[in-house]
Amino acid sequence: MGKYVRTFGEIPGCPEGWKPPSGKRSEVRLAGLHAHDIAGISGTAHEGADAIVLNGGYPDDRDYGPVIVYTGHGGQDPKTKKQVADQNLDDSGNAGLVKSKLDGLPVRVIRGFGEKSSHAPTDGYRYDGLYRVVRHWFKTRDDGFRVCQFLMVKIGSPYDVSDPDYSDDIVIDDASAIPHVPAEPASRTKITVNKINRRADVVKEVKSLHTNRCQICGDTVELPNGPSSEAAHIQAVGIPHNGPDVIGNVLCLCPNDHTRFDNGALYLTDDLKVVNALTGADIGSLRTHPNHKIEIEYVRYHRACWVKEP
Amino acid sequence: MGKYVRTFGEIPGCPEGWKPPSGKRSEVRLAGLHAHDIAGISGTAHEGADAIVLNGGYPDDRDYGPVIVYTGHGGQDPKTKKQVADQNLDDSGNAGLVKSKLDGLPVRVIRGFGEKSSHAPTDGYRYDGLYRVVRHWFKTRDDGFRVCQFLMVKIGSPYDVSDPDYSDDIVIDDASAIPHVPAEPASRTKITVNKINRRADVVKEVKSLHTNRCQICGDTVELPNGPSSEAAHIQAVGIPHNGPDVIGNVLCLCPNDHTRFDNGALYLTDDLKVVNALTGADIGSLRTHPNHKIEIEYVRYHRACWVKEP
After folding, report:
1. A61 and A130 housed in the same domain
2. Set of chain B residues whose Cβ sits within 8 Å of the Cβ of A259
3. Minimum distance, in Å, between the CA of residue A38 and any CA atom of chain B
4. Do B238 and A170 touch (CB under 8 A)?
5. ipTM score of the complex?
6. Are B236 and A164 within 8 A, CB to CB?
7. What are the Cα distances from residue A61, in Å, to A89, A179, B97, B115?
8. Which residues form a coiled coil (chains A, B) (predicted)?
9. Domains in chain A: how many in total?
10. Are residues B56 and B162 in the same domain?
């Protein structure tokens, strides 16, 4: 048995709908889809989570198909499976799912026969595609124990929106709490999935090189599970700018400086000084890293969007 | 002729596809769709822009149907229509579109027969639905003059995403620069439009009461067109939290504190003290406004998501 190589996104040879021919969970691991044979979450605090298994292990799970409320790992008695302690973010699986949320990493969802839901396979296991973690929180159960929960939406589905507040697109039809699922636009699915897989690598690399420290102000936004930051394109991607999604076109910024940079309140000179566009003041040098080369053509493109030069 | 009442969103009696029976622009104004008979943008810096007309006035416009690159107002000689000066954000129409972008206000798009595009009507004017402004920038034209431009996407279309970087969903098929437009999911359109109209009022009111000052740190993020902030729900909307979209459930925060609040790094006590969840330290009182009553039930819901209480 080889070492599990953590990969984010699709695994070649295992398209959506793939089932292990033997029906065994270990074959899911050997295919490279999930690191473990028992634990639900495949991931670490540092790398993020690349996959989860839904197999009926936690009664607080809710499976609506393209939308899942997933319960984290921990606090169960291994023999009786009863909750005997609180869950927390020290658990590497739970911390991994938070990391995947913050970095926008795609998470493979595998459903097993043990799940009591109309979306589960009747036997064995099935790979059901890529999901995004849009929100997490803690819930106090009726027995008083706390569990960590994650709202996950299928990438490319109508619920796949970057602002978690927009999860109210999901309409609960009746008291049985089954959300209304509009028909999915097939052509959009493919486009979105391709995009996410591409961006995730760049985002991860830039944030990691700068350990989530803002390249403009030097601060990090500290969260309970560690520091966080945003990956900001210099020359915007998408029409009409069509900037490339490469590390030389991305900065690691705090959310406030990301807003300032995207709205022209800050720009960069050719020698990477940061200028306050409102006052014209040079407010210091961009923090750089030797392995993060910023391409000057993107800096010039961004500046031309906000400053008239002779 | 009555005074124009600026209204954001749909106008009763003027559904998408509505055309003025007389074919005249003045009837568009009288119907309450747009404030002016000549200017392209209906809006002010303070209120935001509620509507635009696309009628071929600026050669830098690009109309892809659900996606529009719209050129701002100003700098043209009124007689020759030639560009003779730079555009800027002192213009109330341009500043209004930036305000609509920052506050998420829906903008009515009206196309006129003067537009040279397959999406324009052959005669008169037509109301073509609600769009969102996702990005703005300045472009230097070949003649050296600067124009302000706005990327707008139709609400409910596959391009309607809150993160402007995701505008790369738009695939340019060929050199004619016509983007590929996947079929739109009809059922989703309605849901999204209802949601946006609802949120826009709450967002506008909260930001206005606090003049974009963060209720936690007291800072504002200053942009070239004025201060900016984010409207943050206390009890999250959408499943499974289902918090209401009302002013008593919304805070005016800077992007950094919004990230901290949504990830449990900060929470509020019943007497509206702000607590740093990482250290347990009371870091001061929430800044309040007499006309912004925060409902304590939402504060308690948010706190229960992040703190275990006895």
Report:
1. yes
2. 221, 223, 228, 255
3. 27
4. yes
5. 0.79
6. yes
7. 18, 15, 43, 53
8. none
9. 2
10. yes
